[in-house]
Protein: Potassium channel domain-containing protein
Amino acid sequence: MGATAARGSDLGRTTHVVPGMTEEQAAKARRLDAPTVVVVLLVIPALVLHFSEPRGALAVASAALNWAIYAWFFFEFVYMLRLAPDNREFLRHNKLDLTVLVLTVPLLPGVLQALWVLRLLRLIDMMPAVLGRFVNITLLPYAVVLAFIAVFGGGLAFARLEGVSVFDGVYWANTTVNTVGYGDISAQTTEGKVLSMVLQWTGNVILAMLIGGVAAFAQQLLLGEDVEELEKEVDELEEDVEEVEEDVESLLENVRGMSATDRVVLQELAHIRARLDEVQPGDQRS
Structure:
């Protein structure tokens, strides 16, 4: 008896299940979801600790946590690469994981350590595992996560590049992303100015996503029941249309031997069928 493929519903509720996996492979992949969520959340305190420039035992703990997080990402990627039925297809759908793995090596020197904030991008990757079905409702969850990454990650990077405190860096990033720009803290280095330009552009996009996400979510809450009722009515109407089409088809097949009156009736039915074909939304679903 051949191995059965993973159900399509699993693909939307888990991060690690990929198309083509058997049930056994999918079960193994799902075991990575919970620990990976924990590791991704640990990125936040790890970054704060590192960019606060700790000393002594805290510095050792910061370095150990940094390496532990990267080690898990490396293990997760290699394990999934071995587990996936098609490595090329897996790499094509997991460019984010590979990018984070390549650009956030713990051995990065000096200013390049600002790239470690890219690990926060894995928060996007873990959204299905954290929020389940809710993540499919609107773009709001993604917009909120992107806003957090821009403000928190951008603030940490700014603090490293400009030599300011983590709090001042996050404060600067928040005012920049929200297009406020008080001017009390500004970039003085070339790297900081480049970061400023990046956040200014991405901030506009993130704000647009947030506004659109909030509007869509509010619409879903206010009109959700009405939309569901309309969808049911449309489905019932489509079923009726299909039944009428089947009746017309049956009559057209038996057109021989009919009277002139019957032929006229069938012609009218044929015209009705043509009109139904024009308005039937069934083709749009395919």
